[in-house]
Design a protein that fits this description.
The protein is mainly alpha-helical. The protein contains one helix and no strands.
Length: about 180
């Protein structure tokens, strides 16, 4: 019986060991699965970390673009204010130019009217001066003719005293009192 009992005990041990081996095989499979899951988790963790870095880079880029947009908005506001100021100044300059142009046109109209009045006055004075010149020339002619008549009369009187003479021009005919 001892052999049987030893075989039986060995057989129990063998089954027990086989059960342990089977459990170890299952455990080994489970450990392999766990290792595989851990490797997948590590790979996924690496991808998550890479994505986190990308998100951080994109967030920085987004913040940079937002800062640039704020700067562009500020610059746009400055330019719009400058444009509004320039338009106001241009409007004032245009109004001033229009006012000055109107004043200059009024002044030119006044000068033209004054010139026309002066031109008319000058024309009247020139007519008066022409009349006076004609009158002076006529008077000078009359004076000259009067002088000539006096000269002629003086000569005639001398001739008359000297003797009888006849004027060839038919102006004076003298007869001798003798």
């Amino acid at each position: 019986m001892s052999e049987r009992s030893s075989v039986s005990s060995l057989s129990v041990k063998q089954r027990d060991l086989q059960t342990r081996i089977d459990a170890m095989s299952v455990l080994e499979g489970d450990i392999q699965s766990c290792i595989k899951l851990m490797e997948e988790c590590e790979a996924e963790l690496t991808r998550v970390e890479e994505q986190s870095r990308k998100v951080a880079r994109h967030r920085e880029q987004l913040e940079g673009k937002q800062l640039e947009m704020k700067e562009v908005d500020v610059k746009e506001q400055q330019l719009l204010r400058q444009l509004a100021n320039a338009e106001d100044k241009l409007g004032r300059v245009r109004r001033t130019a229009i006012s000055k142009r109107e004043a200059a046109q009024k002044k030119m109209q006044s000068i033209r009217e004054e010139y026309n009045v002066m031109a008319q006055e000058r024309a009247l004075r020139m007519q008066e001066m022409d009349k006076k010149k004609a009158s002076i020339e006529l008077t000078e002619k009359k004076v000259h003719q009067g002088k000539m008549l006096l000269i002629v009369d003086g000569r005639l009187a001398r001739y008359h005293r000297a003797g009888s003479c006849r004027c060839h021009f038919g102006i004076f005919k003298t007869q001798s009192p003798y």
